[in-house]
Amino acid sequence: MDRRKFLAGCLGLPLLAHVDAGHAQVGLTKIIFPFAAGAGGDTLCRLIAQEIAPVLQRTVVVENRTGGDGLIGIKSVRGASPDGSMVLVTTGPTMYLLPMVETTPSFDSAKDFVPVSLLARFEFAVVIGPAIDAADFKGFVAWLKAHPDKTSFGVPSNGTIPHFMGSKLEKDLGIPLTRVPYRGSAPILNDLVGGHISFGITTLADALPQHRAKGVKIVAVSSAQRSPFAPEVLTLKESGIDLVADAWYGMWLPAGSPPEFASKLGAAASAALAKPEVKEKLTAIGLIPVGSNAEGLSKELAANTAFWQPIVKATGYRIEN
Length: 321
Hints:
The protein is globular, with a radius of gyration of 20 Å. The chain starts with 11 loop residues before the first strand and ends in a 6-residue tail after the last helix. Helix 1 (40-56) links the parallel strand 4 (28-33) and strand 5. With 321 residues, it is α/β, with parallel strands linked by helices. Helix 3 (92-101) packs parallel to helix 11. The protein has helices at 40-56, 71-77, 92-101, 109-112, 137-146, 161-173, 186-194, 204-212, 259-273, 276-283, 294-315, and strands spanning 12-13, 18-20, 23-25, 28-33, 59-64, 86-91, 113-122, 124-128, 152-155, 178-181, 199-203, 217-221, 247-254, 288-289.
């Protein structure tokens, strides 16, 4: 299976300080971002880097190390010197889905990294085209049952959260669905408008502009509560589907990093995310600032791993490596 078709919408980064016996030293901290510059995760990295540099008393830079669906960046931090010079910030799905689908896992998130903080959340949406006469998700399900020959749906790539959301929906609804992988959300939305597929599962942020312009319709969001970006849209749980599938960015250090420094870094990142000007910039691009401690990040990762493991296993999807 081609890795380039694996994870869409997953981002990452690193940043940090030089540590000796738990104390930060003046120097350079690299924020490693495993995906291309310009997207929401990259913006998140640069905002945090700017805010934490004075606190850590270090020069903090963002470095984009792309490739391997995030693995190039992840591997560059795994095994790095635990001196605070490198930090990883990436999406949760890269940290729990990649080890699930690789035939030989390239890393162990628990053994190879020290958790620092949960940073921000983003959401997924079930989106339909203008040709489908449905006011909400339940109406859309009724439409699917009445049109069993029109059950194709688009996902940004194979092996992503939208991919496995589709598998869960197929099982829960009892309706055979045909998954169509794309390269990102834009072509999915174009094919929805053109009537080439019946629905798509994309990030909410990607679908919102056309939803607001009446080009497509978001019929459900995957978050636990209604999205602040589309409060009129019901969640999947409100629509009768036991599925919560938001995604998030987290921050990690290489294994062996001093817990005192991890705590200091997490506190600095959380303080940055609490600033009104930072919140405003992140919500403008569809990110929900969170901030936590190491325990909060570990619990989030463990919960997501436990939830998605049986779903992913049931699909039989694997990446040869």
